[in-house]
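FIELD: query
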Amino acid sequence: MLNPAALTWSALNILTKQRYDAIREVFGDLENALKHVNEEFLRGLGCRQETITNTLLRLEEFDADAYAKDVQKRGIKFVTIDDPDYPAQLKEIGDPPVFLYYKGDLSLLEQPCIALVGTREMSPLGKQITDHMVSEFVSAGMVTVSGLAQGIDAEVARETIAAGRKTVAVLGHGLRMIFPTSNAKLAEKILETGGLILSEFALDIQPDKYTFPSRNRIIAGLSLGTVVLEAPVKSGSIITAELALEYNRDVFAVPGHALDPQYGGCNELIAKGHAKLVTTAREVLMELGIVASEKKSSAYAPQNDHEEKLLNILTSMPQPIDDLLEKTKLDPGTLSSTLTMMELAGAAKNVGGGKWVRA
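FIELD: result
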């Protein structure tokens, strides 16, 4: 059941996490706060006059029931920051989105994610680098995250799908559309292959110069690290990288020729010490502590419920026994014996220090 008050606040498109916390502290919940929305209320939130006028008009015209039916008709799911399904990695950043709309498999975000970003004007070299990097990352069990723009973003999604893996696309607009329209078929393919498309914006929000930087912070926030594959100075990819740095996430950049403007942003990130210079995905994996599988384990059939539970939790990111105990709710003896049997079967691997990965 979709929460009408949460949907309404989402459609108003004015709630930052800071504002959300403030109104909940004063009014208790979103439904009660909605009853008090007027010009004085919005001014107290720090809204400008133009925003106040537009917000009050949108609130007057908004039909929560009709909107909820539209969301459901399109097969779109909706979560708030207080829902248990909200991505844990994203909640850790300083300014997480209060609402998320999505289509596809949200549980992908529980796996190790890597953001791969770059210019819309992808060069042949940029394509070659992207294809090579993506192939190595997905082979190591990582989920790729990009923005579904033209160029590098679209190539990340295409190459992930071509490798038989799943990818995540974060949009800078509402899910009622795909922008650019040339990527609409690619978006369908992402979903057909078990991937995920998500956005913080209400269905009818159009892309503009403000929505894309907001989108970029989600890309950075969902991921363990961000790799800039090819980007000029002052591009959206550089914004994503700087945001990732702000969130204490690892940032990597592929260097380019000193006179090539396509790599000006990458070179500048490296020169400033804002990104680690990398030329292969393996260097990134080592920095992140990801253990690449030597073979695919997807064919392994769990022998019991305990193994099935562990297979759904183990990833290429090493996890200590204490975390596995908490996630599986198994007793220590059962967990230990199950991991031992799975290791003998080649489905799990002890990487030392009491940490385990999916083999």
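FIELD: remark
The CA atoms of residues 52 and 187 lie 34 Å apart.
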